[in-house]
């Protein structure tokens, strides 16, 4: 049992748990009782590994970014999750959860999505497995993420607009949870991040931990040691970060850096920097750090990247933050866009805007010349071309 | 004796009405309570509106959004309810989501409720194990009944655990759904009502979700102590205003 893994009751220190209505209890309980056992079977592992290798395209490369390393006078590696099928790390989780859903005998799959990446990753595995797929997406996000909506539809998913509240990711999540309440028997809910009630944060971390396992092996090969000096990833809900951090958390000598979106700045009302602006509270069944008003009403976050504008963070990250194990940095829209452009120009890699936030930390943190940094290059920028284009005037 | 238990001890089927505080207008809260009491309602659930009401369907979501836009808050609700006991003696239950209570401070929340004369609390997303471990004693100290929920999917063993936690009534969700669905009850629901009734729990049973008229009220209360009506009441209130309250309650009898 590691210091940062989840407790028997589903807590990471003070955070996590399952603060869910009784109506949802049977669904979550069925999952809680079975997920570890199912994931642990040889059969599951065999299928999971085979799909990750041949379908997703793993292992993804660990790429030494020499130009960037030279500029910032330190050694920078990129874990190329952007090369995964569908363009981001999200599919690691959906491949795992679809196998789990099949093992549980579920034939109807629901998911929430913000920018559409998780929705696409879910629609993809549902198409592969021939399962019905319903994706809840905020009506506002449907408007601004048209290409991903089209992809989901082409893959055979039904995209249902969430018209409640602010009509974005948190509301899509609420709608998915309500759907699950209304379909307690035949439906599995594939949450896209390390959020939600226990066991989701642990389960999604476990399925994404393939990232950190590969990094270890690749580090050994390239650097002659398993452990980098720093692992760095952007954090919205925090699934790509959890996947990269997973096997390094217990090695205190590895620095952990989470990068949040501060939007137009933490002093404005348009931000998503949860560790700075949030307080302990409950969102989507989990106790965590959360952006809310004094009354506990959840406030709407803002970031130029639709994948980072979640008002909470996963309970694991809240725990890493509170214990000081993880350092959290927040990056504005402008800084992220500049970093995205820099990575494109210097390394020929156009990152997702979410991912670009992580590459903007050099303004705030200093590294030694012989430090080895591993960034999670979590997603590619294809989906963001329109935003980049408008921003830079191309 | 707590007002809820007094009501439950009567030889009649209880009508319990849920409404959203601060809706349709911010200052309507006490007026709705008074009119409900005058019309012969037996129990009132005062909904503290929440930004993300997971267990609620579209009608209550909308009324909650409107109430929040009107300026409703926890502080404001407690202020509005000052002196309500000079006006009505009907059992009052505050229903909300746990984060609102947590941010106010659970102990302060309980104290305010006691001072006002609130009789019980329903928090659908406060899990029973955490309630038992952290808050049961506190609720008891302040004379507040904790009303737990069960659904058709709740196992017999868990129902027994839940029954041990309260001593007023168990909120029986009629079907596995968010609020505001269904039209009349089929055989499956009827046999579920009877099955739970036959368990002879310590708590009385009140059925909620999907009750909208005298017919569904009669069905759902046949094996239980009565029903809770939320979405349909709010729909009436939205369409007919205050004048619609009394005729609606009478129509259920």
Going across the major beta sheet of chain B, what is the strand order?
5-4-3-2-1-9-8-7-6
Please name the two chains that share the biggest interface, counting residues whose Cβ lies under 8 Å from a Cβ on the partner chain: A-B, 35 and 42 residues
Rg of chain A from C-alpha positions? 19 Å
Instruction: Give the termini distance of chain B in whole angstroms.
Output: 26 Å
Fraction of residues of chain B in helices?
40-55%
The class by helix and strand makeup of chain A works out as alpha/beta
Q: According to CATH, what is the class of the largest domain in chain A?
A: Alpha Beta
Top CATH class of chain B: Alpha Beta
**Largest beta-sheet characterization of chain A:** 6 strands, mixed
Count of helices of chain B?
12
Q: How is the largest sheet of chain A built, in terms of strand order?
A: 3-4-14-9-10-13
List the domain count of chain A as a whole number. 2
Verbal overview:
The complex is a heterodimer of chains A (394) and B (253). Chain A has 394 residues and is an alpha/beta fold. Chain A is built from 16 helices and 14 strands. Chain A folds into 2 domains: 19-52 and 89-203, Rossmann fold (3-Layer(aba) Sandwich), CATH 3.40.50; 57-87 and 209-392, Rossmann fold (3-Layer(aba) Sandwich), CATH 3.40.50.1100. By secondary structure, chain B is of the alpha/beta class. Chain B contains 12 helices and 9 strands. In chain B, strands 5-4-3-2-1-9-8-7-6 form a 9-stranded parallel beta sheet. The two termini of chain B are 26 Å apart. The model of chain B has no long low-confidence stretch (mean pLDDT 95). Chains A and B meet through α8 and β11 of A and α3, α5 and β6 of B.
């Amino acid at each position: 049992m590691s210091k940062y893994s989840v407790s028997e009751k589903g807590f990471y220190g003070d955070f996590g748990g399952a603060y869910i209505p009784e109506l949802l209890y049977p669904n979550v309980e069925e999952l809680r009782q079975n997920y570890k056992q199912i994931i642990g079977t040889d059969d599951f592992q065999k299928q999971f590994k085979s799909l990750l290798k041949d379908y997703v395209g793993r292992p993804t490369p660990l790429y030494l970014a020499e130009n960037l390393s030279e500029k910032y006078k330190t050694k920078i590696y990129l874990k190329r999750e952007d090369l995964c099928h569908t363009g981001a790390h999200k599919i690691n989780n959906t491949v795992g959860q679809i196998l789990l859903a099949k093992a549980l005998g579920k034939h109807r799959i629901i998911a929430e999505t913000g920018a559409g990446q998780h929705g696409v990753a879910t629609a993809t595995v549902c198409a592969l497995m021939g399962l019905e797929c319903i994706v809840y997406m905020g009506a506002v996000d449907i408007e601004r993420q048209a290409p991903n909506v089209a992809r989901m539809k082409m893959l055979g998913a039904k995209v249902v607009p969430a018209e409640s509240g602010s009509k974005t990711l948190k509301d899509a999540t609420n709608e998915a949870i309500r759907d699950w309440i209304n379909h307690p028997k035949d439906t599995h809910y594939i949450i896209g991040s390390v959020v939600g009630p226990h066991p989701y944060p642990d389960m999604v971390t476990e399925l994404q931990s393939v990232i950190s396992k590969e990094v270890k092996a690749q580090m050994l090969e390239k650097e002659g040691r398993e452990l980098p000096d720093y692992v760095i990833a952007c954090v919205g809900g925090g699934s790509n970060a959890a996947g990269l951090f997973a096997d390094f958390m217990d090695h205190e000598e590895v620095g952990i850096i989470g990068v949040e979106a501060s939007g137009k700045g933490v002093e404005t009302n348009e931000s998503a920097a949860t560790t700075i602006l949030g307080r302990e509270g409950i969102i989507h069944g989990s106790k965590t750090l959360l952006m809310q008003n004094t009354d506990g009403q959840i406030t709407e976050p803002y970031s130029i990247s639709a994948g980072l504008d979640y008002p909470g963070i996963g309970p694991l990250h809240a725990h890493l933050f509170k214990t000081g194990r993880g350092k959290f940095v927040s990056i504005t829209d402008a800084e992220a866009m500049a970093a995205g452009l820099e990575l494109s120009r210097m390394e020929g890699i156009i990152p997702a805007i979410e991912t670009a936030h992580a590459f903007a930390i050099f303004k705030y943190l200093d590294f030694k010349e012989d430090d080895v940094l591993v960034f999670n290059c979590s997603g590619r920028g294809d989906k963001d071309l329109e935003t980049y284009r408008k921003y830079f005037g191309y | 004796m707590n007002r809820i238990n007094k009501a439950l001890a009567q030889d009649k089927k209880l009508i319990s009405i849920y409404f959203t505080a601060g809706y349709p207008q911010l200052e309507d809260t006490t007026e709705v309570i008074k009119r409900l009491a005058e019309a012969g309602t037996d129990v009132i659930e005062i909904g503290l509106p929440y930004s993300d009401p997971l267990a609620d369907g579209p009608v209550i979501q909308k009324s909650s959004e409107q109430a929040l836009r009107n300026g409703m808050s926890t502080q404001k609700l407690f202020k509005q309810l000052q002196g309500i006991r000079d006006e009505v003696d009907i059992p009052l239950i505050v229903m909300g989501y746990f984060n609102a209570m947590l941010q106010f401070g659970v102990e302060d929340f309980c104290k305010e409720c006691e001072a006002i004369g609130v009789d019980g609390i329903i928090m659908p997303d406060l899990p029973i194990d955490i309630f038992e471990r952290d808050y049961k004693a506190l609720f008891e100290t302040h004379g507040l009944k904790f009303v737990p929920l069960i659904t058709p999917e709740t196992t017999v063993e868990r129902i027994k655990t839940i029954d041990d936690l309260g001593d007023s009534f168990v909120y029986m969700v009629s079907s596995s759904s968010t609020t505001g669905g269904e039209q009349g009850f089929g055989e499956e629901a009827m046999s579920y009502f009877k099955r739970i009734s036959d368990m002879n729990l310590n708590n009385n049973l009140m059925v909620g979700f999907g009750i909208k008229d005298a017919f569904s009220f009669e069905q759902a209360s046949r094996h239980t102590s009565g029903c809770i009506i939320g979405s349909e009441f709010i729909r009436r209130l939205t369409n007919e205003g205050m004048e619609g309250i009394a005729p609606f309650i009478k129509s259920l009898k």
